[in-house]
């Protein structure tokens, strides 16, 4: 079986060959296509149900049942989500370097199932919670907070779920795409349709998590709610394994991270070497696949042919010397980092939708008739807005922009990111205004503001995500080197991860700088609106930095290979002179035949 393996397991087959589960060349009539792709999609659907069902309703449980402060609860959630997205990098690395996407997804689904089962146990056993606390003691901060022993199983469960969901998130879309042959126009169109249905599918999973599971958790029992999540993941894993005979597999071809660290290591090792008189003297310059650039010139030393590389056999040893192509690919990755850094704050703002915004909902009027809407279910506005604007982008905004700008793209990826950043700033301004109004009414008039006012920040962040998510993903995929596309997904996931971690850091700094006067469990005694204003101010500064960096960024397609060796330059000049002479001769001939 070819579920994981090293390069060249079968003689006569290329490393990039598509194989069946027995390791033989695929029979397209019996493998791949929509059926196996749909089975794979089930894993991502279940992952969304688990993550959204947990993250969007964890703060009310931590504050209400475990009596943990709002600031600490928000930090616990953002650290969990940050770790989950960061471990997506590890999942991608393992799949590319050794395990294969199928094995990584299967193992990750099993780990996730175990984690959610542990979470079910942690929230069901009464001894895992402190004594109940009435409203009077809660208002006077006299509730007993959960101790370390009670939190231990909860932490174990959450940080078992994190690597599992991270491994699924980073590989399931790629494994699904592997089921289609892009060289076949019919299958290529099916793959494009699969990708659009993939996003729709995970959105449906998100809606199910924030509406159905959150309601069950709040009104029937958290154990049952998390138990359903665990059951869906176990079923998805079983379905994935049952589909093994129909999948198409690709062998692991090594991680691009290997190229990255080798170039950096060799550049450091050869830092005392002199630069060659001309770039054409660098290793494998004549076979370069990307243009040589002068940016990050220090990395060129990784391709310098020193005494150790004098032998022709050593020129092909990557541990001794890099090629110009490898060096330039690393430069391209480094060129992404400035834009990468300005994308982080968007996800810091987004993280508030899973923490303080949900906590706001608990202090607002949530009753429609006799039905009390769970606080976590208000995040459905976020998912619905994302779905709405994703459709509007492709059917309205992009076609309109094409007509106005005469650009095939309509809206460039950097423009999408910029629009997303602007909308996120507007969301924090709206959140600050709504929170101030809510607090004043609660204190002065003892009236609860309707929780539907939270729609403003959910709507603005959701519409911003529809632009920023697509823009960032497109930017990292388009601008990354061709053989480092998997790393581009990792870079994108890392912006989300860092956004959640920055949120945790900001909460810690603000909580200590204000002596816990802004972020209080009792929102009426705190000043959450000031925290939102701080995020809006930071977002504005970040936007200015982004605009400067974006204006200086040169898209990859704007870097054609130019002749840089002396021979190439002389040849080009000679050709130009010949063309000029021929042009003049033609003009003279025309003059000679004029009457």
Automatic annotation (TrEMBL):
Q: Where are the transmembrane segments?
A: 76-95, 101-122, 198-217, 223-247, 332-350, 370-392, 413-434, 454-477, 489-510, 530-550
- Give membrane topology per the record: Multi-pass membrane protein
What superkingdom heads the lineage?
Eukaryota
Sorted alphabetically, which keywords does the UniProt record give? Answer: Membrane, Transmembrane, Transmembrane helix
Q: Does the keyword Nucleotide-binding apply?
A: no
Q: Gene3D superfamilies annotated for this entry? A: MFS general substrate transporter like domains (1.20.1250.20)
| Entry keyword Transmembrane | yes
* InterPro entries reported in the protein's UniProt record: MFS_trans_sf, POT_fam
Similarity field: Belongs to the major facilitator superfamily. Proton-dependent oligopeptide transporter (POT/PTR) (TC 2.A.17) family.
Its recorded name reads: Protein NRT1/ PTR FAMILY 6.4-like
